[in-house]
């Protein structure tokens, strides 16, 4: 990209740097399109004007709350402003009506309590410090004043903080529009408690994030004419199905698998589960437990959240039966059968897991085995049954696990 202005000797500039991306300095010499720059780091560089940008010397050390106030809105200027504010523990910055968040990777409860929500309630946009509550309040006021639907897009790379930012927006909108239903459960509660349920079944530890959402979602909050929440809908997209069967160090599978393996003894006995490290779909990675996360407590919290959002005890049992069945299914290994290119469960251990999976799926054990070890090809007027070798049977097992989990998540 061409430079944003004509440079002269003494101009304050930003120049690209291989080590720190951008570094500031003064233009010492100008030779056509080539500039010799004396950098503040002490080194002297020669750069083409296409990789040099003017520096706004009037910006304070603490930066600006709204980057539209910068004299030059270019990459080095934006990054310098965000870094300056982050150094002052200011993680939010506006660019017009866009809010940029820099993930602090620590909990800051004082920024998101009831007192803060009261502060932003009805405040003029831009009057207070940049905050997700300000974005949510603006959307709420526009909806109430003009009677039109509003949309907030939360975007960013993995680990940027999208999940937490979305929860804060929902927290504020639920605060503004909460009301108690006749059964004592508030719509506000149900909206907020949908988050831990979705996170249990759709989030996992990745290299960059201990609670990474492995799906996209569209959250719709519906309000009545009085501004109270009348309903909600959540649509999910593009679940990472491959994670169910295959993970690598130091990542984890979906949280719900580890939670169930850490459930109270009576639940583990009901689903015939042991330690998470005993299951193939979980022990492909050495990361079984997460620092700062108690899977046992999270299981209890998830069950409580499921109660609040209206999932009955029978439905919860059916959900966790499927989760447990997938774990048992993953422990079924295959060996070559007596017929050519055929396969059978490898040993008694595999037969046990197959039988347990069938019981939890509430299907016939023999039918489940045949569905894994054979393939049915339907042609016009007839069905052809073909044996699968041990490798193909294992692939069939994994495909079934992925499909069942995906259907469960969509439900």
UniProtKB/TrEMBL annotation:
GO molecular function: actin filament binding; ATP binding; calmodulin binding; microfilament motor activity
Matching SMART domains: MYSc
Keyword presence, Nucleotide-binding: yes
Domain Myosin N-terminal SH3-like intervals: 8-57
Gene3D superfamilies in the cross-refs: 1.10.10.820, Kinesin motor domain (3.40.850.10), Myosin VI head, motor domain, U50 subdomain (1.20.120.720)
Pfam family, any one: Myosin_head
Cross-referenced InterPro entries: Kinesin_motor_dom_sf, Myosin_head_motor_dom-like, P-loop_NTPase, SH3_Myosin
Residue ranges of domain Myosin motor in the record: 62-411
GO cellular component, as recorded: cytoplasm; membrane; myosin complex
Keyword annotations from UniProtKB, A to Z: Actin-binding, ATP-binding, Calmodulin-binding, Motor protein, Myosin, Nucleotide-binding
Residue numbers binding ATP: 156-163
GO biological process: actin filament organization; actin filament-based movement
Record-linked PANTHER family: MYOSIN, MYOSIN-6
Record family assignment: Belongs to the TRAFAC class myosin-kinesin ATPase superfamily. Myosin family.
Name of the protein this chain belongs to: Myosin motor domain-containing protein
Species per Swiss-Prot/TrEMBL record: Triticum turgidum subsp. durum (Durum wheat)
